[in-house]
Design goal:
By secondary structure, the chain is mainly α. The longest helix has 25 residues. α1 packs antiparallel against α4 and α3 packs antiparallel against α4. It has one domain. It has four helices and no strands. The mean pLDDT is 89.
């Protein structure tokens, strides 16, 4: 897979998890995590748009944000539980990290 295709995959996954985070925040999250979910949802969606047209800085920023989300959200989930969708979001985040890492290793100059 080329770096461009990996970036496109990353973009789609970021937008999807952004929408999922926002939907969960509005529909069914406990009150104490609604705002963080909504904030990360907006960040992920914006990064998804930026990654599609951006270069290496966009990919690196998306990787940093995703890793931060996994660490913060994952630790909160392990301590307090949460909506059933959080493990799904975790899996999407892992796929984003994998696609981004692979895009950075490709020699294609579009990453």
């Amino acid at each position: 897979m080329t770096a461009t295709k990996l970036k496109n995959l990353m973009s789609v996954l970021l937008i999807a998890t952004g929408v999922l985070h926002l939907a969960v925040a509005v529909i069914g999250a406990p009150a104490d995590i609604r705002v963080p979910l909504a904030v990360f949802g907006a960040i992920y969606a914006a990064l998804g748009v930026w990654v599609r047209s951006g270069g290496k800085p966009a990919v690196l920023t998306a990787l940093a944000a995703t890793l931060t989300g996994i660490l913060l959200g994952g630790s909160n989930y392990l301590q307090n539980g949460g909506p059933a969708t959080l493990p799904i979001m975790f899996l999407i985040d892992v796929a984003i990290l994998a696609a981004g890492a692979m895009a950075l290793t490709k020699s294609d100059k579009s990453a």
